[in-house]
Amino acid sequence: MTHLAETLNFSGRKVVAAWAALPFPALRGCSLPDTLHTYQDVPWKLLSSWREQKVSCCFAQSVVLRGIHKERKQPVSPLHTCESTEQILQHYLHTVFPGAFSTSHVLEQPCSTLPPYPQFFSPLLSRQGFLLDRPPSYSSTAVESLPVLAAMQSSPGLHTLLCSLYKDVQQLNTRRWASFFAAGVEQGDFQEALEELRTLAQCYKTGFEAEDSEDEADSD
């Protein structure tokens, strides 16, 4: 994970955000182009700990799709004309995030959810993890596998996360944490790390965040 984060970052950036669609929201019997064609925005959800916001651009990302195959159907969009699953995913990423450095990997094998994997899934999932039009008439069975779409992404949204973290740490009264400094951390080192965190946050700033950053600086 460390090496992947380093690969996706440049210009002083060090942090990436994690996203996942678990399961990947594909109807049973639908092809990958059909599924992606219905999503104007990416179908994954944020796993990192900050208030989720729409991400319309990113600097770099690595995306993995597993358990989905390309099915031959009459072309209705540019996605349907791609020759392989890898090309479909790459075409989709370049369309949603134009100009971003995107790498993608496709694995045929789905993610196994056999015991002891917790069964917290909706009854609208088939045993293979695909969405059903309606709940099955028979008693539900355990979901045995899932198609998954996951991503590690370096994006401007991390500017907000890191600024919030900086503000939270800045407000700490270090005099109340004597044991923290008794462990060997010097006050000067703490302040230096805090300033490095603020500098790191600025590395993710784009023109869209410029006004917010000025407001943050004024409040500091």
What does this structure look like?
InterPro entries: DML1/Misato. The chain has 220 residues and is an alpha+beta fold. It folds into two domains: 1-154, no CATH class; 158-203, no CATH class. Helix content is 32%, strand content 15%. The strands form two sheets. Strands 2-1-7-3-4 form a five-stranded mixed beta sheet. α3 (85-96) links the parallel β3 (60-66) and β4 (101-107). The relative contact order is 0.19.
Strand-helix topology:
Elements: H1 2-8, E1 17-21, H2 32-37, E2 45-46, E3 60-66, H3 85-96, E4 101-107, E5 111-112, E6 145-146, E7 148-154, H4 157-170, H5 178-182, H6 187-202, H7 210-219
Parallel strand pairs: 3-4
Antiparallel strand pairs: 1-2, 1-7, 3-7, 5-6
Helix pairs in contact: 4-6
Organism: Heliornis fulica
Protein name: MSTO1 protein
InterPro entries: DML1/Misato (IPR049942)
Counted beta strands: 7
Q: H/E element string?
A: HEHEEHEEEEHHHH
Count of domain modules: 2
Shape: globular
List keywords for this structure.
disordered C terminus; 220 residues; five-stranded mixed beta sheet; alpha+beta
Short description:
With 220 residues, the chain is α+β, with helices and mostly antiparallel strands. The chain is built from seven helices and seven strands; from the N terminus they run αβαββαββββαααα.
